[in-house]
Amino acid sequence: MKKPLLLSLATIAILGTTNLSAESMYDQFQAMKLEMQKMKKELEELKAKQHTVVADKADDDDEDEASSDDKKVASADNEEDDDDEEMTVEEQLADIQDSISNLNKNTNGNHLKLGVDYRFAVDNLHYKMADGSTQKNNAFMTNRLWINMNWAATKHLSFTGQLAYNKAFGARSGANTNNGYETFDWIANENAYNDTLRVRSAYFFYKNDTFMGSDVPWTFSIGRRPSTNGHLVNLRDDDRAASPMGHTINVEFDGLSSKFALENVTGVDGMYVKLCAGRGMSNAAPRFNSAPYADTTDNTAIDLLGLIFTPWSDGQYTVNSQYYYAGNLIDVVNPNDQSQGFQTVGNMHAITANFIANGIGDGINDFLDDTIFFISAAMSITDPDNGQSMLGSAINESVKGYSEWVGVQYPSLISEEGRWGLEYNHGSKYWRSMTYGEDTNIGSKLAARGDAYEAYFTEPLIDDILSLQIRYTYIDYKYAGSNGFFGSTSGASTLISNTMTGASNYVDSAQDIRFYLRYRY
């Protein structure tokens, strides 16, 4: 059989091309994909040919040993020809296998792979202030672009990164660059601001099936963490869940995490523990200073330690829990003058637990099989520094806040692939979450000291590439400071009424009606 020189030459031409302007990267990868399909087909044909040669040889060996000397000589000649043919097939197999291996390296794990996630959204925003006045924006339009990057260097070690661009259409009037909240690091890519492309996440990820000789699969990663759109909140955002429980943490963060799967050693389905640590703000002097990056007297570094424990997860029912401790938290010195910066006010503990049913019952009907239900509860506990007040409480007083959250997501009754979702959450007077990065333009609904209601419909239009969503969010605040920080300036919990001081500056209720089109590939 003739060796597949044409395929080999074509492969070399594709892999060796450097003229990227000749065709788009998509066209090049499509050509490589087609070439791989051709080579795999020829590989199958050669394997079939090899099988036939071996079978024919076996048949020859079964011939009558009593044949004449001429027949023996002829058989020997034929067997020699078959050996030559088999060697040729083996060489061809090796040649194509090498070509496919090279092609795989150029289209798969050994090169940085890019993905695009673009979303156009328009929000109708309406606020009722405590004094009865209203503020609104009938059509706040935004572009959000995520550029996803992945590179698996080995089967154990990989890199993941994401660049983000999030801005309002055109130049946004009213944007104050001196506002400490507007540009704060925790919401750098969740805030629709300017046209800067920022790093949303960047970290390496190591995994192994054994830990120090034990049958415990484990992982370790460090970098700019994927800590927004966490568990449960990812359902309405139509994303894969990030690591944290979204009820209490939804901010961008720099840190590390390490997960240990305990199912093999405990025999309990899905059991794992995950340790997390990070730094939310670094206390460091400017680069061009007498002592560059040394500690300053402005603020102490904000650090966070967390523990995620899943005691049970069998694929349908899951129980999750999370604890974190955040130290050296801050508030603005003067909410009316952001240029005065922040001050350290104290620390905080938070505990979260939730239950998720990915399918209700066991084969009752298709609708319930494809329905997701969850319930989550959380508590926050302040630990003020000496002489400080947190969340509007008395000086040095520790206060507890509580929040409940329940939701359901079920198949659409008006389309084949669509999903409906309904959610409700409630927060008490001193409730405080770290959910500033939540993708809700009127403010985090899960941070609400009051009641929040949400309904949404998500519909795939073209496979999982193009989709739309319509979402309605309504928040009825009972106490002020829901979206503030941790002290008693922006974060003070004050009963909302039309007689409160500065009533025109406090939101009594807010609603957001959002429509988006989203492209992911």
Instruction: Quickly count the domains.
Output: 2
The number of strands is 16
Helix percent band: 10-25%
> In CATH's first tier, which class of the largest domain applies?
Mainly Beta
Proportion of residues in extended strands: 35-45%
Strand order of the largest sheet: 1-2-3-4-5-6-7-8-9-10-11-12-13-14-15-16
H/E topology pattern: HHHEEEEEHEHEEEEHEEEEEE
Q: Give the rounded overall mean pLDDT.
A: 86
Calculate Rg over CA atoms.
31 Å
Low-confidence stretches: 1-23, 71-80, 82-86
Main beta sheet, described?
16 strands, antiparallel, barrel
Structure notes:
There is one protein chain. The chain is an alpha+beta fold. It has two domains: 5-107; 113-520, Beta Barrel (Porin), CATH 2.40.160.10. The protein contains six helices and 16 strands. It has helices spanning 5-15, 25-61, 69-107, 233-237, 263-266, 366-369; strands at 113-129, 134-152, 157-168, 198-208, 218-225, 253-261, 272-281, 302-313, 317-332, 342-358, 372-384, 400-411, 419-427, 450-462, 466-477, 507-520. Strands 1-2-3-4-5-6-7-8-9-10-11-12-13-14-15-16 form a 16-stranded antiparallel β-barrel. The longest helix has 39 residues, at 69-107. The protein is globular. The two termini are 41 Å apart.
